[in-house]
Design a protein that fits this description.
Elements lengths: L1 H13 L1 E7 L2 E6 H13 L4 E4 L3 H10 L3 H6 E5 L4 E11 L4 H20 L2 E13 L10 H4 L4
Helix pairs in contact: 2-5
């Protein structure tokens, strides 16, 4: 049983980065926290439709509260020196300039992660996976349904 708990502890250690501790003890930030911060920054950026992935599976995951979709769309690479690199896959709404939206995402993610964690963001790679016609949660409107048939 001791080897199992050590193995699980080692797995958690590899997914967290240690920052300078205080007199009270060590401070560690799990990569899931950084991914969550990045997700908030990405989704608050104008022109971003959603994180990339399978729309049906992502909708189901969101309904049941799963964070697995975020782990597929946001990759976090932590270093022991308090530095982090991120790769974000997302969809952009049609009508927006892709390079402008991607640069805004990079700035938003860098700012939020650095402000919240005190870590240095070394890079934010943005991969635009698809263009969406409209926001995924907007109901589709079909004008022909509103007009009487002749």
């Amino acid at each position: 049983h001791k080897t199992t708990s050590r193995k699980n502890s080692a797995a958690v250690e590899s997914e967290a980065v240690s920052l300078e501790g205080s007199a009270a003890g060590a401070i560690k930030i799990h990569e899931g926290v950084i991914a969550s911060l990045a997700r908030k920054a990405v989704l608050s950026t104008e022109g971003v439709s959603r994180l990339a992935g399978n729309a049906l599976m992502d909708n189901i995951a969101e309904i049941v509260g799963s964070r697995r979709m975020q782990s597929r769309a946001i990759a976090v690479d932590l270093s022991e020196a308090g530095k982090v690199a991120l790769e974000i896959k997302l969809n952009i709404l049609i009508g927006h300039r892709l390079p402008v939206v991607a640069a805004n995402v990079q700035r938003a993610v860098t700012s939020l992660v650095e402000d919240a964690t005190g870590m240095t963001v070394t890079s934010v790679d943005v991969l635009v996976q698809d263009i969406d016609e409209k926001m995924p949660d907007e109901p589709e409107t079909d004008v022909s349904e509103d007009e009487p048939e002749n």
